[in-house]
């Protein structure tokens, strides 16, 4: 299946809104709910965009001999499968570097969504009304749901890219990392959001990605421009990493924690290499090697992810070179 969506501005980030249509659906036409945010030429033109894409038909391979016959078919048959795009927008004041939807949204019914802004602010939204509007005819999103429910200002004017919701803490726990190596923890207690004033920090190298553990609700990992993967525990009073492992001589751009086997962590690097690590080998004063490592990419790895349904499958993406 392949469909192209033309956005009003470039988007640096994208995430899926969990739904109740099934994890392994294979029937067509398909539907999917997405959230993204823009990088507009003027700050005031930026938006957070929530979308529902439906009537997505399967892409069929065409035989050259059949092309002439297919052109004579009734055009109405094709129109029956035209994709449908619906969207709800929220105005933003700055470019969004990264957006993350709470993975527990389907379970809690609360579509908590965080954005890491170029301005340094971390905005927290509840997109429950936007999600409801797509499947409830006549429903209008209330004005208060088009504003952030909370703003994390602890990063000052320092932007960042690391952002992740805990997959275990139902009340909401968010980690955000910036270019100066600081990671702040924001949690909710009694409907109030609170950010720990003391950041987790190892040095001044930028935090490029953050991943919460899939099995321990106080443990998380970071990847940074210093080439290190670090394992942290939110219970640490010193706010220092528990384990430090050099993963690459270049930046660690992205990491992914396997949800099926909780001791596997994948990392993608700026030199085009990527690998999978066994966290059981992460011990103090040791230099563990990845379980597997690959170098066939020739450009920086910009995304990496385990299949949430099969630990043996992993996907990654590289940055394309642009020609002037």
UniProtKB/TrEMBL annotation:
Taxonomic placement: Eukaryota, Fungi, Dikarya, Ascomycota, Saccharomycotina
Keywords, alphabetical: Nucleus, Repeat, WD repeat
GO annotation (BP), single: ribosome biogenesis
Primary location recorded for the protein, binned into one broad class: nucleus
Classification via InterPro entries: Glutamate-rich_WD_repeat, Histone-bd_RBBP4-like_N, WD40/YVTN_repeat-like_dom_sf, WD40_repeat_CS, WD40_repeat_dom_sf, WD40_rpt
Residue ranges with Acidic residues bias: 63-80
Alphabetical list of PANTHER family matching this protein: GLUTAMATE-RICH WD REPEAT-CONTAINING PROTEIN 1
Organism: Candida boidinii (Yeast)
Protein biosynthesis listed as a keyword: no
WD repeats: 200-242
Positions of the Histone-binding protein RBBP4-like N-terminal domain: 1-56
SUPFAM superfamilies in UniProt: WD40 repeat-like
Name the UniProt record assigns to this protein: Unnamed protein product
Compartmental location: Nucleus
SMART domains, A to Z: WD40
GO cellular component, one term: nucleolus
Region of interest (Disordered), ranges: 59-96
UniProt key word Repeat: yes
């Amino acid at each position: 299946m392949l469909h192209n969506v033309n956005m009003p501005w470039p988007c640096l980030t994208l995430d899926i809104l969990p739904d109740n249509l099934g994890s392994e659906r294979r029937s067509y036409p398909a539907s999917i709910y997405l959230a993204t945010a823009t990088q507009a030429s003027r700050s005031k033109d930026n938006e957070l965009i929530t979308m529902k894409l439906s009537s997505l038909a399967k892409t069929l391979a065409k035989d050259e001999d059949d092309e002439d016959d297919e052109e004579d078919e009734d055009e109405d048959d094709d129109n029956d499968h035209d994709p449908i795009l619906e969207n709800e927008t929220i105005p933003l004041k700055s470019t969004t570097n990264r957006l993350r939807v709470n993975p527990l949204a389907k379970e809690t019914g609360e579509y908590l969504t965080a954005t890491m802004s170029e301005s340094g602010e971390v905005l927290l939204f509840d997109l429950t009304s936007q999600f409801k509007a797509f499947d409830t005819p006549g429903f209008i999103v209330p004005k208060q749901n088009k504003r952030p429910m909370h703003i994390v200002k602890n990063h000052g004017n320092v932007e960042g890219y690391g952002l992740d919701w805990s997959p275990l803490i139902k009340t909401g726990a968010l980690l955000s990392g910036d270019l100066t190596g600081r990671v702040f923890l924001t949690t909710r207690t009694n409907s109030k959001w609170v950010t720990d004033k003391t950041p987790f920090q190892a040095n001044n190298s930028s935090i490029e990605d953050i991943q919460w553990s899939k099995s321990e609700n106080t443990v998380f990992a970071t990847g940074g421009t210093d080439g290190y993967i670090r394992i942290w525990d939110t219970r640490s009073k010193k706010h220092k990493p528990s384990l430090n492992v050099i993963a690459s001589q270049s930046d660690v751009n992205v990491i992914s924690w396997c949800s099926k086997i909780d001791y596997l962590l994948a990392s993608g690097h700026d030199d085009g290499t990527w690998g999978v690590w066994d966290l059981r080998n992460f011990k103090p004063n040791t230099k563990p090697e990845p379980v597997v490592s690959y170098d066939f990419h020739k450009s920086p790895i910009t995304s990496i992810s385990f299949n949430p349904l099969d630990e043996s499958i992993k996907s990654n993406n590289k940055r394309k070179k642009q020609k002037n």
